[in-house]
Amino acid sequence: MAKFCFSLGMNLKRIEVIGDDEAEIIEAARRMSDNYDFVVTSGGIGPTHDDITYVSIAKAYGLPLKLYQPAFERMKRLSKPHKSQPNFSWETPSPALTAKLRMVEIPLDESRPENDQVLFVKDDLWVPISVVNGNIHILPGVPRLFEALLDGLKPALVPRLTDPEGKGIFRVLFSTPLAESEVATYLTELAAKVEPQGVKVGSYPRWEKARNTVTLVGRDQAYLESLIPEVEKGVQGRRVMREDEDDPLDGSDKDQ
């Protein structure tokens, strides 16, 4: 998700991990939707009892869950029963069919256009993206499906961006042998200095490695480049293209 946002020049503001708790999902959905213009959920839309994302977010906005027939038709056309279900039938009521239907019973708001609430972004996938309250996008947790559907959202997102494809965002990496605790003061001073220029300073410990990573991220490439000598001196390191570029073959532990 972070890479997706960075590739489009989107500022990723918050990531939360929420358990299968209805009250917590409701609170987080409302709060995130109020505070941010693009919200994505991952997981909790499968066929079992603990898959409660749809029902929880529906309750958050007082919406009914409805069987979305176009999604059901796509499910029947594009998915196959598991080999453990040789006698499964789409037309015959059964516990397995009831479980599958849970995955196409989604929150629907009659006051909003249906096409804005249910998106099919991949022709070879039956899974819909349910959009609630205009900005909550409900995606599956299976990594392959999540990534494919997220990628399928790009055409709809790009027109809304000030910097499509993230072409105006640049990142500079530095490899340092110093512990984070050693460079903390310098990085704090550096961050205060460069923040007015729209530059973010990051520090990332690399567990059981001899070197850590410091990053500069911003839109003014020339300004970022001008900072390189100063930062290399401040962290007693050098600019690298990959964070593992200076790793020794054996690695080592480090102070945090």
Short description:
By secondary structure, the chain is of the alpha+beta class. The protein is 36% helix and 16% strand.
Query: What's the total count of β strands?
Result: 10
SS-based class: alpha+beta
Strand order of the largest sheet: 1-6-5-4
Beta content: 15-25%
Order of helices and strands: HHEHEHHEHEEEHHEHEEHE
Question: What is the C-alpha radius of gyration, as a whole number of Å?
Answer: 23 Å
Sheet bearing the most strands, described? 4 strands, mixed
Q: What is the average per-residue confidence, as pLDDT, rounded to a whole number?
A: 92
The dominant shape is elongated
Describe the structure.
There is one protein chain. This protein is α+β, with helices and mostly antiparallel strands and 256 residues long. Helices cover 36% and strands 16% of the residues. The protein has ten helices and ten strands. It has a four-stranded mixed beta sheet with strand order 1-6-5-4, with helices on both faces. Strands 8-9-7-10 form a four-stranded antiparallel beta sheet, with helices on one face.
